[in-house]
Amino acid sequence: MAVPDFEVTHYTYRVTWSAEDGEFVATCLEFPSLSWLAETQEAALAGLRDLVAEVIDDLRGNNESVPQPLSSRAYSGTFNLRVGEELHRRLAMEAAAENLSLNQYVVRRLSQAS
Q: In the CATH hierarchy, which fold is given to the domain comprising 8-72?
């Protein structure tokens, strides 16, 4: 199976100030072990993008899998969650009090929390 060519810019980056280092640090969700420090946000992001590109080249050169960008992944909209009996009961009662299915109630609560 051919490895898709992901654009380095399609990965999920974050640049924050590191008080400890006195510089900006760039990180990438798909490559959690990588980071890049620089004096500016732009330089931190550019440095990390270059590093991610190098890592992808190395992975491909060794026939290893390349992480798919989160933005490119397909999501079904379904996930299973195990909760204790007491929480399940309480959520079901709260949903019933609002005339909602348990699923509708939990989706609403999750949406409000995020």
A: Double Stranded RNA Binding Domain (3.30.160)
